[in-house]
Design goal:
Number of strands: 6
Structural class: mainly beta
Distance between the termini: 26 Å
Radius of gyration: 12 Å
Order of helices and strands: HEEEEEE
């Protein structure tokens, strides 16, 4: 997971504690499978909802991170944030 954090740091993201909306910050939640391998990332929008790309042309917005948890994406294991542009 350290290499994954390092990759996101090139985009100015740093680890953070939770998914709570913070004024002036954009957050990303990283899902991992049972082996700790990253499977999906979702980005928090300014209103606190989340956006995910689920396929070539499928973008969705969702209110909670838990709606994607399960066998396909695993569970959220990491939160990252950076100042909004």
């Amino acid at each position: 997971m350290d290499a994954f954090i390092q990759a996101y740091s090139t985009l100015k993201y740093t680890p953070c504690e939770n998914s709570e909306l913070e004024s002036g910050y954009e957050k990303v939640a990283i899902y991992t499978n049972e082996n700790g391998v990253p499977t999906h990332a979702t980005r928090q929008l300014p209103d606190g909802t989340w956006t995910s790309k689920l396929g070539k042309d499928v973008d969705i917005e969702h209110e909670s991170l838990q709606v994607l948890e399960g066998s396909a994406y695993g569970k959220v294991k990491l939160f990252l944030k950076r100042p909004r542009a």
